[in-house]
Amino acid sequence: MATLSHNLRTAIDAIKPARAVRDFGVFANDYIWKDDRFYASDGRMSASMPCPKTGPDCMLPGDELEALISRLGEDLTVTHNDEQSVTIRSGRMRGTLQTRSPDAISMLEPDGTLWTEPPPGLIQAMRLARPFVADVAAQPYATCLCLREGAILATTNITLVECACPGLNAPMDKLLPSWAADMVLRCGDGDTSPHGLLTGLILQENYCAFLWQSGLWVRSQLATGAFPAAVVALLAKVAPEQPLAIDRAWRQAYAAVAGISKGIVSIEPERIVGGRGRSQVVHECAPLPLVVPLEGPVHFNPAFASAVAACATHWDLSAYPAPVPFVGDGIKGLIVGRRA
User: Fold this and answer.
1) What are the two backbone dihedrals, phi and then psi, of residue 183, each rounded to the nearest 5 degrees?
2) I need a labelling partner for 174 at 20 to 30 A (CA). Which of 66, 229, 258, 334 fits?
């Protein structure tokens, strides 16, 4: 049987990425303990985890609660002194936290009548697409995972990918911001997740939500817009004409050079060349089994090409200097090279 300590620590660990870093007033950086659940929100994203109450509903200061819990022992006791404070004790150490009314925050919750069964490969497809989301971009779609019918799209504007997700029912593009995707991926799915299987999914016009076996849910606003039709059309044509296999030895060699290079890594038939500043790094490789000889070295920015090399099984380097198509297990896409 789960103890109070286990329930409290598990709830805080599960939902703390959704808590606001700063107190914005309307969406405070506090935790809400209400109706046998813990809640957190930053105004864009909300999360909640079951946690049986020990007293009246309350709102607890987030930073102070996390600092106190991290320093207390395993056995916790919680005492609600009145409507303004809570004392948490373990052994000879205790802390008293000032509380507020949970009604001070209007928590955004998913509509429980809208849960649908998620496709079994949703989290895997999201994880596969996540490295291809831009950190910063002028267009919102480039900083999001695009959930659409049967697939997830992502782009850094240098790379563009489509990850297969059979059974994903999203007739219109749903743009899930990268910070929300990171929260979902942190929660995981199945045997690797402390929350068990992903059991529920909601895709609405302006928000989406995810539900796990443990009772944890995450709700996030969606970005406005959609992937441009011209960009989607590029993916429809991805089919390497001269597919070149990427074997394990070559992938490791590229990763070794890219890991200590900055700016450009060049691919040649029998070697990979990189470097930074006044240094050069060369890794000799077995000759590439090229059907069409390369016109010269193929240059990529390793910040983007490393993600491609990590997941692709085949690509067509002969397409360079045009975008290079690549395919892998459940993924296909394009990468734009660089001029030397």
Assistant:
1) -65, -45
2) 334
Name the nearest CA neighbour of 101 among 78, 87, 82.
Answer: 82
pLDDT of 97 above 90: yes
Residue 23 carries which DSSP code?
-
Closest Cα partner for 190 from 85, 130, 250, 120?
A: 120
The dihedral over CA atoms of 294, 295, 297, 299, expressed in degrees to the nearest 10, equals: -100
Rounded to 5 degrees, what are φ and ψ at 217?
-130, 150
- The torsion region of residue 225 among left (phi > 0), alpha (psi -120 to 50) and beta comes to left
Cα–Cα distance, 57 to 278 (Å, whole number): 62
- The encoded tokens of residue 319 equal 């397409």
Among 3.40.630.30, 3.90.25.10, 1.10.8.100, 3.10.150.10, name the CATH number for the domain at 4-104. 3.10.150.10
Task: Please state which CATH class domain 122-236 belongs to.
Answer: alpha beta
The CA distance from 130 to 113, in Å, is 29
Cα angle for residues 210, 214, 217 (degrees, 5° grid): 25
Confidence (pTM)? 0.92
Read off the pLDDT of residues 19-78 as tens digits, 9 standing for 90 and up.
876 665 554 689 999 999 999 998 899 999 999 988 889 999 999 999 999 999 888 889
Q: Which run of H or of E encompasses 34?
A: strand 30-34
Distance CA 291, CA 68 (A): 64
| Structure-token pair, residue 160 | 């563009």
Distance of CA 7 to the CA centre of its chain: 25
Rounded to the nearest 5 percent, the helix, strand and coil shares of the chain are 25, 35, 40
Alpha carbons within 13 A on the beta-carbon side of 59 = 15
- On whether the CB atoms of residues 92 and 78 are closer than 8 A, the answer is no
CATH architecture entry for 244-335? Roll (3.10)
Contacts of 322 (CB under 8 A, 6+ apart): none
The rounded distance, in Å, linking the Cα atoms of 294 and 271 is 13
